């Protein structure tokens, strides 16, 4: 026992004699380890979720369409953050921020004695530590992570100024309601920018930083009482720091702010706009995982006013008693540029993700007659040619008979191609398509803008629109007509800027002439007749500027279209249901919805407002391709009855628009067909009418297909 005591005394004496050396060695070892750890600590790479920025989609005027993000964050400089907000945050989180070096040992020690969710004004971590944890560390509850936090904090303090750290922190911290950073917090809680925050609003937001889940009144019961207590505590601390006087603090009362709303970016038609832009961006190589963190600014071709008018037109003019599965698509394009200025893809993206303007398909009906008319004009048939408009008629195609009736089985007799277009006479256009060749009709449709992924078969029924394009496809095709035969690829994305504001993409217009100007002049003249005294006249006659268009109603009334254009804008509107077997009958108080009813009403409402700011422009004068002579095609020219006095041939011209003075185009003759013509008329009995004034566009000429394939926005 005595030997043991002697040994302990000996060790103790040795320790006391070497204490200084031991202490200095330990200090040295600590310093070495500290320096090694400090040097190995890097802050060059932030957490992706912290450094992520929302990508913003904008209208042409710079107003926001919507955004995509991982965290909804918009960074702003500290100079745009009110001083009273900065002081409120310091009072709530780190009163000694400007005096410590990143770590506050006293605060850490004090925090060990308090509950993490208490209403104390100070937490254990400094603002620098909080930023270090958010920006550079994983959310782990480990001692090692706490040690790393200290080193990272010191590194941050050594790298950035206090103002820079505070700015980074205020742009990174979470405030609840999916709001990251002070700017989005201000917008989502108070509907204002951060720069407009008053002292009371600033203190509320500062109070939320500690734990939004425990202080946001809209999150759970009891939060409001806790928030008020914390609000008053922060005011008291601001007074103690000299940032508020007693009088100022007393005048600051708890502000009103609304409950959180489900602010889904995909709500209403806006979701369809955002989805369509994202689809095009993906085709350009900007996938969603890049967009959600990259902070890109995407300038679209969408016009905010036009978009508002489009949505208003659909909502105000749609039938009120419509079934739930009635879908309406609208697409509006600027001719010659391919810029999509407005889209209506549906009233709520959250309920239906299929875009009724850019993705859904519907039978085009008589809309496709325009392509037969284009093919006929290119082949030398004039608007003055006279055709058999009786109904029904049977056409021999190969070994089969094809029976065709007009709408309502109306009989028209011998009718000019001009009038046949205005009245949308089925029997005439089927004969016309067979005369020029269904292949040429398909070719005209492709050149105009109907893409290759839309099935268009070269059959006699092609002119009746059995094919099912998208609304954007038809709007694009008619934009080609409005641009006097120049096809332009439709697009939504105009410019892209990266997170630093650098321009990294600008669209290059893809355009090509696909039809001659003369053919287009006559086409627009014929389609203007649809408006003046044709199938759309009941709604659109008297429109305050030159327009042209075509109604389209599918067989069995499964869909209804109106597509029209001015020289400045092409717009297509379509009605359809989930299944082509379901009809549009008995909706909106009508026996059936045709293109000249609700679709034309929506088109009219939208186009009047969208075109109003623009100067009035005019279509070219008709070129009278094929001449003005009344040539009868597959129908005998009526002759006067011998016992009656011959009736002089009418020279009265078709009523013409006020914006040009065309030569007269012969209309229907009032004389009956010969009684011997009741049998089905053969389609091969007459040769094509030679073109006496304009040659057909030969392959490889200005009417050839462009060297790229039109591809619509999905």
- Report the portion of residues in β strands: 5-15%
CATH-scheme architecture of one domain: 3-Layer(aba) Sandwich
CATH topology of one domain, anyone? Beta-lactamase
- SS class: alpha+beta
The CATH C-level class name of one domain: Alpha Beta
Give the fraction of residues assigned to helices.
25-40%
Would you give an account of this structure?
There is one protein chain. The chain has 714 residues and is α+β, with helices and mostly antiparallel strands. Among the domains are: 71-251, Penicillin binding protein transpeptidase fold; 339-345 and 357-611, Beta-lactamase (3-Layer(aba) Sandwich), CATH 3.40.710.10. Helix content is 37%, strand content 11%. Strands 2-1-3-11-12 form a five-stranded mixed sheet. Strands 5-4-16-15-14 form a five-stranded antiparallel sheet. A hairpin with a 2-residue loop joins strand 15 (559-566) and strand 16. Helix 16 (369-378) crosses helix 21 (517-533) and helix 18 (426-436) packs across helix 19 (438-448). The chain starts with a helix and ends in a 103-residue tail after the last helix. 46% of the residues are buried. Residues 115-123 and 647-714 have low confidence and may be disordered.
